[in-house]
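Input sequence (258 aa), recorded before submission:
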Amino acid sequence: MSLITIPRTAKWPFFIGDALLTGLAWFLYTQARLPMNGPTLTACVACVILGALLGITPFIMDYKAEVRLLESSGLATTVEQIRGLETIAAAVNNATSQWQGVHEHATQTVNAARQVSEKMSQEMKSFIDFLEKANDSERQHLRLELDKLKRAEADWLGVLVRILDHVFAIHSAARRAGQDKVLEQLTQLQLACRDAARRVGLNPFEAEPGAPFDPNQHQVQTDGEVPDGARVAETLGTGFTFRGQKIRPAIVSLEPPG
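Predicted structure, token format:
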């Protein structure tokens, strides 16, 4: 930054003129007769005033020069600031154009993303429809297989129950006939058959002779009402539970009322 030298006004001529005017006023004062008349007093006052004006004139001129210099330097600073503002305006215009380009690219990106999203939504919908159809087909297939399994389970369960009923009937007949050796062999056969049935969840059970009649666990062959306090005399057919669910109560005969 360059230093600017302010030109200064030579003050000695003004000081000389001030001294001369002041001396003239003093001379007029000393030469006049007292009391002074109007022209003499006016001349003295005029010399003093003119001397004072001459004394302050160089300082006023220096002050005006400094003010003009400050104004010119302020104008130069203002011009530089205006040039800086022009540079900023150019940068703003450049940034605005770049922003417009970015905005256009962003708009294109958003449109492309929207199109991709729409395509993905369509593909997802088609995939969901396909999965629903596949699930429906699979459910129907599983339902058919489950029905087949249930029918097969009911078939082999019925066959197993009939086998156990026949074994129980043969065992009961041997017991009534009093053939101990045959009864022992049939008892072993019945235990083996029942053990095999328990492995698949089928549990046969018999009613204890003399036990109170329980309509939830026992059933009589003949139709009719069971008297209160009736007791079981003999098991005619075993009852069955399959995996914890009762599928048939034990068929029993009742003791005659005593």
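Checked by second reader. The first helix runs from residue 12 to 31.
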